[in-house]
Specification:
Largest sheet: 9 strands, antiparallel
CATH architecture of the largest domain: Roll
Strand content: 25-35%
Distance between the termini: 55 Å
Number of helices: 13
Shape: globular
Number of domains: 2
Structural class: alpha+beta
Amino acid sequence: MNDDLRSFLEFVRSNSAREYLCVDKQVSPDWEPAAIVATLEKKMRMPLIEFTDVQGSEMAMVTNICASLPRIAKSLGIAPAELDARLVQAYEKPIAPKLWQSSETPPVRECVDRGEAVDLYRLPQIRATAGEEAGYLSAAAVIANDPRSGIANISYHRLMITGRNQTAIFMTPDGHLDQIFQQNTAKNQSTPVVVFIGAHPLWALGSLAAGGPEVDELAVIGGLLGYPLDITPSLVEPDLPVPARAEIVLEGFIRHDRQVEEGPYGEALGFMSNKEPQPLFEVEIMSTRDNPLFQDIVAGHIEHLSMTGTAVRVHLQRSVLEKYPAVTEIHTPGPMTLYIRLAEDKQGLDVNALMHEILQTQRYVKQVVVFDADVELRNAQQVQWALATMVQADRDIIMLPGQPGNGIDPSEHDGKTTKWGIDATAKAGSHGLPEKNQIPEAALAKVDIDQLLKR
């Protein structure tokens, strides 16, 4: 089945040689893999990278798994433009996971360590940014049961290794996992969790599904796959599901009564987080596949931004496009930034109301800009032209102070942020809408550019 990390890795090796890079020399876990990723990015290269020899660990490591959406689409046999549609459909037609049925041991249970045998120092101790003082798990997806909905929630969180069986965990303030943790803490209970590392890219995209606690990310993953994801029960909390084909799984409790210093860490927005006390994750069981692959995400680089941008964009396509049919395209050009393109027929759309709704409901959108149909959102020249010629600041910019922050924006103050929106659409003046420069179509049709270039 082509639905785990190693099957995706094999597909890229076999079918996309230019998009696969094997580094078989020994690399230091301290900044060397991140330096290789950053150097390749400067050359506009985003290959899936396999490091076969990471100093201090017996595990091979892979990164850039989700750095290229076209590469993921190719592995599914679909065009890149179809991937977003498939993600939207997975929300609409989720497929619930199913328990492992085979008489064989689930792959993730091929090696199981308990109690004193658990040793997180077996994992590559990756540091990606100058100033980080300990190894981080940056591709860790955390599963916790939500007592409100009874649904297993999945979310990505950074984990700093602080001991043989301990990590600090950073949870987005008031995010889904933090809400679950706070509910349990109010009852003086620790939060049982499953952490899986090493996943097919569709697992990652499904795990990032945005929405309320009613969204079942495991079922969204099934919707993306087109069939149920195989799961097996957790060994510390049987009601918690474990992806049966994950590479590495850590099971234990986020302690309600213990904290540990976490940070600094080079976050997605390109800034170092502060060192602050965070809850302690205590690992009771560590299970792996034979010869497990360790997965890493270099924070703040293409893969990290692609994953978060895709999650925000697809959720908004699902929610905004349905409610506002005049919206034809959504683009996330950078962190916390959203561009919206409207149809020529705006159908009486209230742009101000649209911007207010998005800014007030989307935690990871800080600025939104709305454009007319003739502006290509990925064309920087056209975007800047619209901002310069269609906007009067006192009329077309809204600001919303005191909005909940996301915990990783260094400009936030006491967990609050000011968001803003820009209406960069054309407005009628005293003489109506301005007429734009156009070359007559008949003149354009007469030009034979190929013939001219032959001269």
